Amino acid sequence: MSQSRIDPELRKEFDAAMRRTLKQRLDYSFIHTHKPVMDEAPWRSFETTAAYRKWCAENLPSWLGYA
Amino acid sequence: MPEPRAFSFRLGEELAAAFAKHRVEYLFIGKAGAIFYGFPDTTQDADVFPLKSPDNGRHIAAALRELGFSVDERLEAELIRGKDFVQVREGPFDVDLIFAPDGIETFEGAKQRSTLVDGRFPVASLDDIIKSKKAANRAKDRESLPRLEAFLQYLREKPDVSST
To answer: Nearest by CB to B139, which of A26, A41, A65?
Structure first.
C-alpha cells in the first residue's frame, strides 16, 4: 500500500474534524466580520463572474484576498 | 435592517427548508460547501450555486423573503433576468448567489456529482469545489487550496468516514 501524502499533523486535524457533528461543523466554522466596501450595500449583482472579479480587484482592499 | 449574523446550523436548516418549500434548485459551494463535508476551516459567507433560470430566480426571491432578506423589486428582477453573481447583504446572514462559478460547466453536471448531506443539504462535490477555486485563482483561494486538496485526499483514503 502506498504511503499517504497527507501531513500527519493535518491528518490528526481532519480526524478530529470528522468526529464533530454536522451541527458543530457549521456552528464553529462560520464567522461574521464586516468587510469594508463589500458589505456596504444591501445587494449587488454582476452580469458575469468576470465582471464581479474585476469589481473586486478595483474596489476591495487587497488584504481581503478577493483579487 | 436586521443585524447580520454568522451562518450557523440553525440558519442552514432554515435555508434548506425555505429553498425546499419554494423548490429552489441549488447547491452549497465554496468553502461553505467543504465545511458540510467536515473540512476544518472558517469562512464568512454562505456560498450558494443556484440554477440560472427565470423560474428559479422567482423561487429564490420568494425563499429569501421568507428567510427575512429584504428583496426589493429591482433585486427580484435581477434574479429573474439572470445574473452570474448576486451578493445579498440585507438579511439574517450574508449570502452569495453564484450562478456561474468559475471552472464548472453546468449546474446539471454539478448536481449529478453533488451529495445530499444529512438528507437535506445539497452540496457540490469536493472535486467541483476545488476545481472552482483553482479556476478563480484569488489570493484567498490559493491560500486554502493545499488544505482542501489534502482533505480530498484524506476522504479518498478513508471511504468509511461519514459526511453527515
So the answer is: A65
